[in-house]
Amino acid sequence: MLDQVASDSLAVYAVWEPILPTDDERWARKATTLFPDFRVRSFWIATDDLGEAFQPALRLAGEPAWDVYLLYGPRTEWQGASPPAPEFFMHQLRGRLPDSLGLDGPELASAIQTILARRGP
Amino acid sequence: MCKTPKSRHLMIFAVLLAGLQLQGCASADRPPLSGHWTTQLPMGDADSVHLIVDLGLLGSRWVGEFDVPEFETENYPAAVSVAGSRVELQFSGTGAEFEGRLSKDGKRLSGTVYLEGDSLAADLLRTGDAKFSDEFLAFEAAAEDSARVTRLSADGGELRTQFNLDRGQTRLLMLLSPS
Questions:
Q1: Which among A46, A7, A102, A33 has a CA at the least distance from the CA of B141?
Q2: Most buried residue, A16, A25, A49, B61, by most Cβ within 10 Å?
Q3: Is B163 in CB contact (< 8 Å) with chain A?
Q4: Which residue in B89, B92, B175, B177 has the most chain A C-beta atoms within 10 A of its own C-beta, making it the best mutation to test that interface?
C-alpha cells in the first residue's frame, strides 16, 4: 500500500503491541522487516495501555485497538493523554468496527492521496 | 570500529547463518527436531493443502518457517516451543497452531492443527534438512537488532511527541500485533 504513495510528506508510525501470546519485542523487531520504507518509524509498547487509549477515538469497546490504520491530516495535534480521532481509518477487526471500513489497501492509499492533495504542491 | 547500519545488519545476518549451519553439531542433547517437515491437511470436500515446515536451532532457540503453497503463503515465520518430545508451533499470520509429539526415531511429528475452531489431525514427516529462505534469515536477524524499534512508555508519550513534531505532514498510524 505504501508503494502506491510516493510523497515524502507522509509520515508513518508502526506501533507494535502485545496482543497475541507470542507478541514480544523480538517479534516487533522482526515485524519491522514488513515495512522496508524510510518513512516508517517503528515502536514497541509492552503494555496494552496505548491500545486502550485509542478506543474512544475509534469508538471501539471490549478490546485494545489493534489491526487498525488511522489517518491524520497535517493540522491535527495530539493534546493530552487521549489520542485524537482520526480523519479516516480502516481496520481488520471484523464485526467490532464498521464493515464498510474493512482494510482495503487501494482505498486506504486513495484516502492518503486525497489528504495529501489538499496540502497542495 | 564504527559500523554503518547496513554493515551491522550484514554482520548479524552472517552470524545467524553460521548459527543455523552449526545447529546440527550442537544438537546432540536436544530432540532431533531440526529438519524439513511436510504433510497434507484435509480441508473438507476432499481438498487438501500442503503444510511445509522448516525447523532449526538458532543458538539455544528453536526457530521455524512454513509454507502453505495452496494459500500462496511462503516463508512465513512460526513460533516454536519445545518441551521434551512435545512440540508446539504457532503459524504467524494464520491463527493456526500445531500441538504434537516427536517420535522417538525423530522422523515423525504427530499431533493436531487447530484452525478457526477446527481440529485437524496432522502427521508431519521429516524429509530432509531444514531449508531456510533468505527472507526468513533476514527476519530472524532483525530480532537481534534493538535499534529497529523505539520502546514506548505506557502512556505512549514518545509517540505523541513524534506525532506532534511531524505536524504539517499527513500521518498514518498503525496499531499492530507483531506475530
A1: A33
A2: A16
A3: yes
A4: B175
Domain boundaries, chain A: 2-119
Cell 501470546 locates to: A21
pTM: 0.76
Q: Are B177 and A16 in contact (CB under 8 A)?
A: yes
Q: Name the E strands within B19-95.
A: 35-44, 47-58, 61-68, 73-83, 86-91
Check whether B165 has a pLDDT greater than 80: yes
A103 touching B (Cβ < 8 Å): no
Q: What is the pLDDT of residue B162?
A: 98
Integer Cα distance of A29 and A58 in angstroms:
26
Residue B110 has pLDDT above 80, yes or no: yes
In contact, A89 and A68? CB cutoff 8 Å: yes
Q: What is the pLDDT of residues B23-34, one digit of tens each?
A: 443 344 566 899
What whole-number percentage of chain B has pLDDT above 90? 64
Q: For position B40, what pLDDT does the model report?
A: 94
Please, what is the average pLDDT of chain A?
93
Give the C-alpha separation, B122 to B41, whole Å. Answer: 7
- DSSP character for A102? B
Q: How far is A83 from chain B (nearest CA, A)?
A: 8
Backbone angles phi, psi at A102, to 5 degrees: -60, 140
Cell numbers found for residue A93: 477487526
C-alpha cell at position A19: 496482543
